[in-house]
Each structure stands twice: as C-alpha cells, then as structure tokens.
What we know:
Helix content: 25-40%
Order of helices and strands: HEHEEEEE
CATH architecture of the domain at 2-68 and 102-112: 2-Layer Sandwich
GO biological process, one term: protein maturation
Protein name: Hydrogenase maturation factor HypA
Keywords: Metal-binding, Nickel, Zinc
Strand content: 25-35%
Bound molecules: zinc ion
Pfam families: HypA (PF01155)
Largest sheet: 3 strands, mixed
Structural class: alpha+beta
InterPro entries: Hydgase_Ni_incorp_HypA/HybF_CS, HypA/HybF
Strand order of the largest sheet: 2-1-6
Shape: elongated
Amino acid sequence: MHEMALCEGIVGIVEEEARKRAFTKVNVVCLEIGALSHVAPEALKFCFEAVAARTIAQGARLEIVETPGTAWCMACSKTVEIGQRYEPCPSCGGYQLQVTGGEEMRVRELEVD
Ligand SMILES: [Zn+2]
C-alpha cells in the first residue's frame, strides 16, 4: 500500500530528527501534502498509527496541511493553481500546462517534548 510506505518514510524522518535534536516524545507531526500527490489523508492517518507504534513517534498526532497544485501555463506565461492533474488552466481554460508543484509530501514541523 502506497500510504504504508509513506508512513514508514515519515517515521524514519522523525527518528532521524530525534537523534539530531535529542527529544524523546513527539506530540504532533505536521505534514504538507501536495494536492496532486494522490495521498489520501485519512488513509495516511490510519497507517501512521500502525507504523508509529513502538517507535518514538508512537501516539503522535498527524496534522495534515494540503498545499495546492501549481502548473506553468504556456498560453498565459504564468504559474497557476490547479486542483488536479489534467485540469485546464483557470485563467485561459487551456490545457498547455506543465505541473510544477503539488506532487510532493514533506514533514513541515515536529512538536516535541
Ligand atoms: Zn492559461
């Protein structure tokens, strides 16, 4: 499952941070998920609990911030926001878009003790 692998990645990042910053408990993991990343937040939360069990991230709350997809419109010569891949340009309605952002997922912040 896609989400399972992502959660393992998140826990890995948390464990690495714990080593660097020497904290022992994580309260909140704040994640940024791009609108075009095909990650289902609910599935992610569910998997996270399972993957985080018996790690330093156990019991941490997952806070998910969705970031918009962005694309470069050739016709408008500017960056526009899109909600989905293959959506037309919101300014001109054209389809000459090149996705430039919103496909990534990253850990934005950790709230720790
Ligand atoms: Zn356009």
